[in-house]
């Protein structure tokens, strides 16, 4: 398959470092609040991407970090008079509940920053020993001028970074504006740990969690280093794919490259960088800070995961995706249509409706199925795949109406449904309708009324069925009952 690689700015053939195996890391959430659907776009995209790679027979190790130590967590803990640990634990739980509600099951390992403090300390020490890190009163910093490749991902140079960009660490005594924190000292000083037990020993200092390292002093990881410490631990210094939202390209991912390639002396750190464009609301990036966000929690209360996923895949991952309630409603409508088709399929199959001979029908469906595969192979174009899938559903309905949908066509459609669903997770579960005997009786009486051309009688029965929560779809193969 081909993927667009932000590092080379080209669409390239995906070639794993080791045949048959892919190691992929995606930046996970900072657990200080409920996530919004902008965050979800990134997580749902990589969930499907990992499932697609697996469907091609690759063994995918998909690693995602959980940022459970960060200024935002500490600030929230102070405001709510709770510990940073309580805040992080609570929102990690909420995050997992949201992922579950969205059908995100592709991640093989979640790794918390606070469970990898010894690895962070080791990496910062290595950078210090190699002359890439220096200490100020605030902590240990990476000197971007010591790394020639700084800017190769985002196209920003260390000098451009001097312009002052958001999310670059402030700090007194830094050598260059773009230098970033590796190890942040707490605001108040504390004596060296008396136990002499370095690494992974956590204390609270004025509400800020800190760990002690004999060589680095008290501190907590900077924003970028937890990711490289975690990936080095599980994957080694080089791996296949790194993903995240487009906002993370600079400075976060640039900093990761600088850290890991400097620490190991090996390049490239990552072969393929994949970035997901923003979900936008009224022309602006959906973000907590803008206040134009909708939480996953709210959306999953209103819509099924299949509707939400279909919506999230409806734009190519490199294009912005607009959000509005009207757009969501249109996906609800599309999903209702799909459910109706699936229900027709189930009932017709029972009624033997596919015992026709319609040469050519299955070929028409197979052609669309091949186009869906081609779209996914081409930079995992979910928007195209979904468009094609919907045209396939329309064709299925047309063929059924024309009594040209035969058993072979059924098999092609069924296997496309299954393979699309295994990757994208957009097909609703087809629940059989449990028809109580009095309802079946009403159905039979309605058919008798219709046969006797008693339209008012048939209509009255339809109304009664509706008042009891059922709808009837009159079709070429007889009426189909659905629950409202
Ligand atoms: P954060 O918790 O802010 O670090 O974000 C978690 C993930 O969501 C990162 O990969 C971000 O790049 C991504 N993200 C944040 N906002 C959006 C958005 N509006 N659209 C798409 N991805 C986003």
Number of helices: 15
Tally of distinct domains: 3
What's the level 1 CATH class of the largest domain? Alpha Beta
Order the strands across the largest sheet as they lie in space.
Answer: 6-7-8-11-10-9
Sheet/helix structural class: alpha/beta
- CATH homologous superfamily name of the largest domain? HUPs
**Cα-atom Rg, whole angstroms?**
28 Å
Task: Report the uncertain regions.
Answer: none
Main sheet specs: 6 strands, antiparallel
- The proportion of residues in beta strands is 15-25%
The total count of strands amounts to 18
Terminal CA distance reads 42 Å
Ligand inventory reads:
adenosine monophosphate
Helix fraction by DSSP (H/I, runs of at least 4): 40-55%
Describe the overall structure.
There is one protein chain. A 6-stranded antiparallel β-sheet has the order 6-7-8-11-10-9, with helices on one face. It has a 5-stranded parallel β-sheet with strand order 5-4-3-12-13, with helices on both faces. α4 (117-129) packs across α6, α9 (305-312) crosses α10 and α14 (437-451) packs antiparallel against α15 (455-467). The radius of gyration is 28 Å and the shape is elongated. It is built from 15 helices and 18 strands. It has helices at residues 37-55, 71-79, 84-101, 117-129, 158-161, 225-235, 249-264, 296-302, 305-312, 325-350, 361-377, 382-401, 407-424, 437-451, 455-467, and strands spanning 2-5, 10-13, 21-26, 59-66, 109-112, 133-135, 139-142, 180-184, 202-205, 208-213, 217-221, 239-245, 270-276, 279-281, 284-285, 321-322, 470-475, 478-483. The chain is an alpha/beta fold and 484 residues long. The protein folds into 3 domains: 2-296, Rossmann fold, CATH 3.40.50; 325-424; 437-483. The longest helix is centred in the C-terminal third of the chain and has 26 residues, at 325-350. Bound molecules: adenosine monophosphate. Residues 15-330 form the tRNA synthetases class I catalytic domain. Its main location: cytoplasm. It comes from Candidatus Yanofskybacteria bacterium RIFCSPLOWO2_01_FULL_49_17. Its cofactor is Zn(2+). This is Cysteine--tRNA ligase.
